[in-house]
Amino acid sequence: MDGQLLSATFVELTDTMVADFDMIDFLHVLTDRSVQLLDVSAAGLLLADPRGELRVVAASSEAARLVELFQLQNDQGPCLDCFRGGQPVTVADLSAEAQRWPRFTAAAQQAGFAAVQALPMRLRDQVIGALNLFRATPGAFDPANVRVGQALADVATISLLQERSMRHSDTLNEQLQAALNSRVIIEQAKGKLAERLGIDMTQAFSILRSYARSRNLRLADLAQAFIDGTEPLIGQIAPRSPGDR
After folding, report:
1. Residue 208 is inside which H or E element, if any?
2. Among the listed ranges 23-27, 168-172, 187-191, 231-235, which one has the minimum average pLDDT value?
3. In whole angstroms, what is the distance from residue 146 CA to residue 187 CA?
4. Which domain holds residue 204?
5. Backbone angles phi, psi at 133, to 5 degrees
6. Residue 30 pLDDT > 70
7. Which of 166, 186, 210 is the endpoint of a domain?
8. Are residues 225 and 117 located together in one domain of the fold?
9. Among 92, 46, 49, which residue's Cα sits nearest to residue 70?
10. Residue 111 phi, psi (nearest 5)
11. CATH number at residue 8
12. Are residues 93 and 205 in the same domain?
């Protein structure tokens, strides 16, 4: 594991709370760094909305986002069990869990995933979501990596809850709802950009996010401007390869 990247990640997850807080970018930092640090193929993040219902708020790839959505739509999967029980759920080989989560197992395998590690985002008895790690090959997850993954989830949880405690008690719920509303706009912008440039949705999101960061724009604001046509975007960027970040 890259020790410097690990240290930088913990700093980034706490420094994000200063200045102008962008929850969508904050949560994507968590999923992106999880993939880079923990020897997994993809990561997704579920958070509870103000009504306590889980929503997909971040994912490191389009495949992971769709698998997370499938879990919610079919009300089954290790990530849901993790959130509801407040405990990690480890699935070293999805093919062995077909009876436990039949629809989820089939969908995850079709998306190219063979193992899942779900980690609760919790502080004592309060569980606000789950960080979910996906791997393309079956086999046990490295216990050291699992501990680091849980530490990342814990730090992110503390940061979110600390932000709420610094303001009104409803701040986190308001931010979560705003983040969910922003996701709709961002998904629309991703689709529009992907169609215009002839690229996939993962590349489109990477381009939008990099463009927003380079110009110090909120991701949702850029997405809305692109949809409205007030930010042309096309012509100012070049399509990226899937490996670009």
Report:
1. helix 201-214
2. 168-172
3. 30
4. 168-245
5. -110, 130
6. yes
7. 166
8. no
9. 46
10. -80, -5
11. 3.30.450.40
12. no
